[in-house]
Design goal:
Strand order of the largest sheet: 11-12-15-16-17-18-19-20
Structural class: alpha/beta
Number of domains: 3
Number of helices: 17
Helix content: 25-40%
CATH topology of the largest domain: TIM Barrel
Distance between the termini: 67 Å
Number of strands: 20
Length: 610
Amino acid sequence: MKKKKRKMRTGRGGKRNQRIRRNRRLIVLTGIVTAAALVYFTVIIVGLIKNLHGRSSLSESGPYVKATKLANETPQNVSKELNVNPDIINHIIGAGRRVSEALSQRPETVELTPENTAEFASINNCAIVDGEKIQIEATSNGIPGSDDKYYYLFEQATYEDEIAEGAEPIEKTYKGEEASFKLNLKKESADTRLFSKFSIAVKKDDSYIIVSHPKYINNPNACARHNYSGMKHRSIKGILPHPLRLSELPDLGVNYCSYNIPLSHILTTSGGIEYEYCGVKYHFNSQIMNDYDNLFKKLNDMGIDIAAIILNDANPSTYPEITHPNARSGSSAPYYMFNASDEGGVKALAAIGSFLAGRYSGTGHGNVSMWIIANEVNARKEYNYMANTDVNTYTAAFTRAFRVFYNAIMSENAGAKVYIPIDQRWTYNTEKTGDYDAKDVLDIFSSSIAKYGNIDWGLAAHPYSFPNGNTAFWNASKYVNHTETTPTITMDNIEVLTNYMQKDSMRDNSGNVRSIILSEIGYSSTSGEDVQAAAFAYAYTKMEKNGYIDALMFSRQVDAQDEISALGLALGLENTGGGHKKIYDVFKYIDTDRRKEFVSFAYSIVGKEF
């Protein structure tokens, strides 16, 4: 039976100012009493010692009466009267004063209220240390009033929004304006904490009350086995390759290739490559994995880095744990929303990410330096199906799945980069058609990642023309302008995207602009080969001058017949028969010293020199 969950109760309100003044008076009074008591009892003890040696009595002139009088005397008089070294008396009085001062500097106790409870404490760091421990550090303004002197730490699963009823804390520490916890990561265990989030609580009226926002580990790379970050390249030029024409890639001077990894290709229910993760055994198709191995090694040998795109096309009836419960039926899209809404889903996604990243990180199977999770995630209806819902709910489902993949991949390869992909519809009001604006999804995603523990995610954008067949993207369009509210982002206004990513709210923890790649961009030759070639030449030049684009993957090396038939788009450098279009040589020489020779024809088409 599924456990019911309850919300943690917040503390009762009170007359806060009166309580603060009363607390301060108590602190000062406690310090005075402590100091006086130290002297008083010292005098008594010394008097009693003398009494035991026959030098005093318990009469009216005995030590108790003398102590009362001497407590008000100077240290010199006390020393003289008791015949005790004055240094001892000074030491005792000094200790009393230090106690008093410490008490007066103790942070005030603050009453918990409905307004301040949820984020009374802030988890400022939740990180892996020494490869196998988790260090959690928090601060607060004051000490929360509660039943006892402790902060308690709770662990939550990825899919949990609240602490389950009956849940018990995993650690506790004394309350203060700073708090620290240290846990075992348990990376290889069935109950690994690699995908958990953590919250701080206090006990109030015999119930646990959460007083911090949950945070995930923000550096899963700290426990990685490998560290492959890719090769150094002289340009950003890349392409979606044709598997039968790989021999042309060196001639084209390709530095990057993108390649799809649909889950239906690599998963199997039994046999193949057995992979145990978090106590569960998974199976991968050995023949298909060998094919990827050979492909990736061949590309690497050509000096090409790979961006692998993980796509969920697995049959929901065969692999239900991989697909979100709200995406298992009613879809006409080729791909489904990943499932991080339950334990089985989290473990399955983590196993897939861990297996792939571990295999392609310098282990002899070929190397992948970039991982893209899903395709154009704002296109719910076309490419990332989930039953229609509001953009916040939809993006939250993707964000949880993304973090699982990120932690799994980075815990295997510390040098990898992991990207969220969006299309060119920036503020196009796509919800009318059942999709979401890329800007809305990106904003919600970025805010949630930061709030739950910032990580170094990257952005994979697809700034196609709009509509896609509008090859001459430089011509004026009602869909394109140079403001932050532009309906679409194409190569005509690509600076809108890179400027947006330079905002403080979008930067990584170190203040750096995140990695931005254009993992799909292409122009159709259906309007003529000259216009297609000119469009690429102008777009590539804009990318280079922009300075914030790490790589581009031109779509594609060879025309796809289904795209021509269904969409009228002939995006390749070559036609389906293998013939080179004019764009082939432009692509080949665009980043060489022969650039102008092959680009100058485009100036008259675009209307300016670039």
